[in-house]
Amino acid sequence: SAARIDLAQANAFIAEMDAEIVANNIAKDAAVAWVSLNTLDSRTRLLQKLITKSSEMTTQLKTLVASGMIDKSASASAEIALRALVLEQMSLDAEISATSANFIKYFGNLPKHLNTPTSLLTSTDLQKIQKDWSKSPVMLQTAAKVLAAKQMLIASQGSQKPSVDFKAGAISPMDRAERTNYAVGLELNWIIGDGGRRKAHTAVQAANLKAAEHTLAAAKLAGKNILDTTLSQRTAFIDSLEILASQEITTQNELEIMWSQLPTGQTSVRQLIEAEEKAYRTADRKILVGRELLTLEFKLLAQSGILATKLALDENKKNKAEK
């Protein structure tokens, strides 16, 4: 019947969307694994530089303490700060081990040099996502499930239509599946099982349709809200990066001034250690916000069904360039 054909088409489309959702989620997880490992690598290199500087300056403080030029408390506090940084490095190393295992799951091995990932989200993508948010793979799949539920109900209702059976004691010349209700000499004969089971089956299909419609309505409402929230978060991350970039320049300028004042005694070694750590925290925060922004954009592209295609195109371009 037409209902059965439409149901088969709806189910085929649902399976197609499911494959697209899976492909985009895998692409997103792989991209996030790359971003996470690259972020940890950048943070580790930044922290190692600070530990090296702090270690050298702590040694200088110990020399000054030994010569009686400064109080021992200054050296002790610097050593405490240095140990805290070393513990922080150990924590990052543990994160790298776990993140590396996840990276290998998607890429097979760890490269000698991990390239810094860049944003794949263009202004054109952003406009398309905002305009066609209701056409994402998840939304289309949810809508197709409503269509499938409708076709199942139609098919179930169709199976309740009566067929005919000849009552004269002879073999009926009519097809038993013929949908005609004869008033004389014929009796109604249900196609499958008893009427109670058929009515119950139809009631189940009707309930399934209502549930599918409710799911679609909820998905539409949630989908738009999630998109708006995600775009607001993206704007906040971009604004934060601009502020942190400005702060990073300021802290670096302060450091240069303090280093120039060290020989004259206008800046102490302890003050310099604190300033170096402040500069590190600003740069580290900037790296973390950059990671959050990239992760959010990859998720946005995946939810919209764009990411898998983009990555495939980028890989094809790369392969052509290498040939």
Provide a descriptive summary of the structure in words.
The protein has 323 residues and is mostly helical. The protein contains seven helices and two strands. It has helices at 2-66, 72-107, 123-131, 137-158, 195-261, 269-303, 307-322; strands spanning 163-166, 186-189. It has a two-stranded antiparallel ribbon with strand order 1-2. Mean pLDDT is 82; it is low at 160-195.
Describe the structure in brief:
It contains seven helices and two strands; from the N terminus they run ααααββααα. It is mainly α and 323 residues long. It has a two-stranded antiparallel ribbon with strand order 1-2.
What's the count of strands?
2
Poorly predicted sequence stretches spanning 5 or more consecutive residues: 160-195
- Distance between the first and last residues' Cα: 53 Å
Oligomer: single chain
Overall mean confidence score, pLDDT? 82
What is the structural class? mainly alpha
Shape: elongated
Strand content: under 5%
Radius of gyration: 34 Å
H/E element sequence? HHHHEEHHH
For the sheet with most strands, the description reads:
2 strands, antiparallel
State the main characteristics.
single chain; 323 residues; mainly alpha; two-stranded antiparallel ribbon; 7 helices
Provide the fold topology.
Blueprint: H1 2-66, H2 72-107, H3 123-131, H4 137-158, E1 163-166, E2 186-189, H5 195-261, H6 269-303, H7 307-322
Antiparallel strand pairs: 1-2
Helix pairs in contact: 1-2, 1-4, 1-6, 1-7, 4-5, 5-6
